[in-house]
Amino acid sequence: MRARPLAIPDVLLFEPQVHADARGFLYESFHQARFEAAVGRSVAFVQDNHSKSGAGVLRGLHYQLHRPQGKLVRVVAGSVFDVAVDLRRGSPGFGQWVGEVLSAENCRQMWIPEGFAHGFLVLSDAAELLYKATDYWSPGNERCIAWNDPQLAIDWPLTIPPVLSAKDQDAAPFATAELYD
Predict the structure, then answer these.
(1) Minimum mean pLDDT among 21-25, 68-72, 117-121: which range?
(2) Which among 62, 63, 66, 180 is annotated as catalytic?
(3) Catalytic annotation on 27?
(4) What is the pLDDT of residues 128-155, one digit of tens each?
(5) Which of 12, 22, 94, 99 could lock onto 111 through a cystine, CB 3.0 to 4.6 A?
(6) Which domains does the chain have, with CATH numbers?
(7) Ranges assigned E (strand) in the chain
(8) What is the mean pLDDT of residues 98-112?
């Protein structure tokens, strides 16, 4: 599995070696020692999540304030534009974002460390994501930043208006969001 840092170097894109033939394919989707070598530290995952969304659904930008989650995200059906926003005050990447297309076909995974907001836009008719998290979901600590905040200027590949949850419609602007110190 090859790891490549993105424009914000703490966010990594993992590209596995896929062994494919007429029967199908096989790839190693996770290897603890190789993952930790790539991220440069010990990481303990405590929760796995499975999400399914329809075409045009945009989820995010979500994060947990006092119990931040690192996430290793992959798509097992369909495709998404996956985004991470650096919320760490004092970080060289503070307020910047990176985005990548993750799909069942390209088998890529994105590592989004603690201190980042996460969101995605479904590009296919439907998409299923699996992701590992470094802390448990904590509803009282969950926060949301507006997906279309002009200060962030995320270049979502939208062709139609996105389908949003009520929470995402009412999300805080970046300028007034509670962020990490």
Answers:
(1) 21-25
(2) 62
(3) no
(4) 999 999 999 999 999 999 999 999 999 9
(5) 12
(6) 44-176 (2.60.120.10)
(7) 2-5, 12-15, 19-21, 24-26, 47-54, 58-64, 71-77, 79-86, 97-103, 109-112, 116-122, 126-133, 142-144
(8) 97
